[in-house]
Amino acid sequence: MRKLVWKLLSILVMILIFWFSNQNASASNLQSGWFYHLFHGHIQVWFIRKAAHMFIYALLAFCVYHAQEKPTIKTTLGIVILYACTDEFHQLFIPGRSGSPIDVGIDTLGALILLGLYKKLSK
Question: Would you give the DSSP letter of residue 93?
Fold first, then answer.
């Protein structure tokens, strides 16, 4: 039953990522903008966007890792990287958005950091 819950959470995170990616450039900028204004402009919007990438893909990695019958970092990273690639491809079809291999790397880095910390702390 637990694995089913993690699988459903993984799918929900994927849906959330898809929803964010499906927004046109102006809607996406508004989402980043409110966070920027929360800190009174002391943080660059670019940094906020990349940190959001890392966070959501770290969350996806955590869910995917726990959804597996025999969890491995290799399988988890494979799934996360594949989803990140399809997400960037999807953005090519959204007005004002683009697909970026750099974002795939940032997404992967978020997953790697989370998985590394999790493995280190769970020993």
Answer: T
